[in-house]
Amino acid sequence: MFDNWVLKRLFPSLDASIKTSSHPLPATASQKVFAASISGLTASIALTIALVFVPVGIVFPGLFIIFIYVFCVVKQQMKHQQMVSGVSFASYWCGQFVADFLVAIPTCALIVAMVHIFNVSAFLGDAEAPFILSIIMFLLAVLPFTYLLSLLFDSPDKAQASLAALYILLGLVLSIVTFVLMNISDETRKVNDTLSKIIFSCYFVHIRRLCYFFRASPMYCLAYSLILISFKPFAFQDDTYWTYDLTGQSFVALAVESVLYFALLLLVEYVSGFPSLMTKLGFTIDVPKAAQQELDVDVAEEQKRIRAELTEQNTLQPGATERDTVHICGLRKVYKTPDGQAPFKIAVEDLWFGIPQGQVFGFLGVNGAGKTTTLKMLTGDTHPSSGHAFIYGVPIENQIVARRLIGYCPQFDAIFDLLTAYEHLKFYGTIKGLKGKELETQIQVLLNALSLTKYRNRKAGTYSGGNKRKLSAAIAMIGNPPVVFLGFYFYFFVCLFVHVLICTCAYLWFVFAVHFCHNR
427 is in which domain, residue-wise? Predict the structure, then answer.
C-alpha cells in the first residue's frame, strides 16, 4: 500500500499499481510428514487433556462421571449399605468397573469419530488400530487407579482439583519432557540419563530412563503412546506401530496396571476389615483410659453383668446369647483431631451393656455423644480403638458373618435417586438371597406398613424427607434380619415407627433402634 501511494504521488497521471507475489517450492515429502507429525502431536496433547477429566468426573457432554459418582456413593453410605446387606468387596468393585467401562465405550467412539471428522492423519490408516487400543487400555487401567486414589480423599472438591492437576502432570507434562529428552538429540539423551542416575541411584541399579518409572501412571502411558504414534512416520520410519519400543511398552504397562491396581484396591478394602491389622498400621489409635468416674447404680450393675459374661480370651461365656442378642463390652473409639488443636478426641468411652432378644432399645444422647460412631463400629464402617462387641455371639471383627445378622438404616438416607421404592427393595432383597414369591411378599408388606404403596413406582429422588426415611427403614428390614439398626430422630420414631414395627413384628425377630435427640 505504501509503495502504491508513493507511485501515485510521483506519477499522478500513470494508471498503474505495484503487486507482489511469492511462489515457494512445493513441500518435500519429509516436510509433509513432519507437518503431519506436528499436527498429530497437537492432537495428542488435546486428547490427553480431555481424557484427564474423564476419571476425575468433570461434567462434559459425551464424557462420563466416574470419580464423582464413586465418591458420592461412598460419601452417602450407599456403598456401606450394600456391604451390610451382603455384597462383597470384589463383587461391588467388579460391578462398578464393568458399568463404568461400558459407559466409557461411547466416549471412545466419539473420540475416534472426531479424529475422522477432522482428518487427523497421524491417527488414521495403519495408526488407527494402535490409537484405539491405547484409549481402551488406558480406560482399563485408569478406572481402578482412580478408585484407589478416591480412598485418600474426604472432599469431592479437593479430590477433583488434586487429581486433575496430578493427571495432567503425570500424563501431559512428563510425557512431553521425556519424549524431548529421549528422542531429539544425543545431548538431550545424556541429560535424561544423568537425571535418571541422580534420581534413582539410591534405589535402582539398572534403571536408566525416567520413562520406565513414569509408566506406573496410566495417564503417562496414554500420552506417551499417542506422541510416539504421531511421530512414527517422521522419527521411527523403520519400526511398525506395534513394536515394543514404540507402543508395546505402554500396552504391557497398562495391561499390568489394570490388574495390579484392581488387586491393590481389593487388598486395601479387605485389609481395612481387620481391626488388629489397622491398629498395627497406625490407622486406628488409642490412648490410655482416664480415671473412671463414678457410675450410676444401674449402669454399674449392667457393666458388672456384661463383664461376668466375658471370658479372659474376650469371648462370650456359653449360654450368654440366650438372654442378650447384642453384647457391647468396653467399646471405645478415639479419633485424631483434624484441626490439630488437640491430639485426639474420645468419641465413645468404655461402653458396656447388653440388649435382650425381642427388645426395642432406644439409644438416647445429645449431639456428639457417640451414638452414630457406636453404630458405625457395630456395622463395620469404622473400627473400635479397643473393646469388643458381639451380635448373636458373633464378634464384630468377623464382619462377613456379623453382617448376615443385621439390617442397617444409617443416619442419612443411603438411597439412589433414580431408582423407585420397589426397585430399591427388590435390589436389596435379591442381595440378601430372596427371590420369587417370597421377595414380592416382603416388598408388598413393607410398602404397605410404611405407607409407600402409592410411591412404589416413583423415583426416590422425588420423595419428601419423611418418605426417604421410610424407604431407608424398609431397606433395613427387607430379608427379616434378626437385628435392625435404625438411625432416626426421636420424634420421628415415636410418631411413625411404633405402629410400623408392630405391623412388621411377624417378620422381625429383634429391633435395635437408635434415636437422635436435639440439643435444647
Answer: 398-516
What's the rounded Cα separation, in Å, for the pair 327 and 175? 57
Taking the C-alpha atoms of residue 123 and residue 279, their distance in angstroms, rounded to an integer, is 52
Q: Are 350 and 501 in contact (CB under 8 A)?
A: no
Domain count, the chain: 2
Is 170 a member of any domain?
A: yes
Q: Could you tell me which of 337, 331, 409 has the C-alpha nearest to residue 370?
A: 331
| CA 338 from centre of chain | 22
DSSP line for 327-344: EEEEEEEEE--TTSSSS-
In a domain, 469, yes or no: yes
Q: What is the CA radius of gyration of the chain?
A: 32
Is 359 part of any domain? no
Helix (H, G, I), strand (E, B) or coil at 361: strand
| Distance from the first to the final alpha carbon of the chain | 85
Instruction: Show which of 210, 238, 271 is a domain's final residue.
Output: 271
247, part of any domain = yes
pTM: 0.76
Which CATH number does the domain housing residue 483 bear?
3.40.50.300
Given a cut of 70, the residues of the chain with pLDDT beneath it are 1-2, 21-28, 31-34, 36-37, 40, 56-76, 155-157, 179-211, 234-238, 274-283, 291-292, 338-342, 488-520
Query: Is 257 found in the same domain as 119?
Result: yes
Residue 184's φ and ψ, nearest 5 degrees, are: -80, -50
Q: Which residue has the cell 520406565?
A: 212
Which residues are CB-contacts of 384 (< 8 A; sequence separation ≥ 6)? 275, 284, 331, 332, 333, 348, 377, 396
139 touches 106 (CB < 8 A):
no
Which ranges constitute the DSSP H helices of 184-247? 186-200, 210-214, 218-235
- At residue 516, the pLDDT reads 44
CA dist., res. 421 & res. 427, Å (int): 10
Hey, what's the cell of 326?
A: 447384642
**Cell numbers placing 292:** 473412671
Contact 441, 478 (CB under 8 A): no
**Final residue of a structural domain among 237, 271, 305:** 271
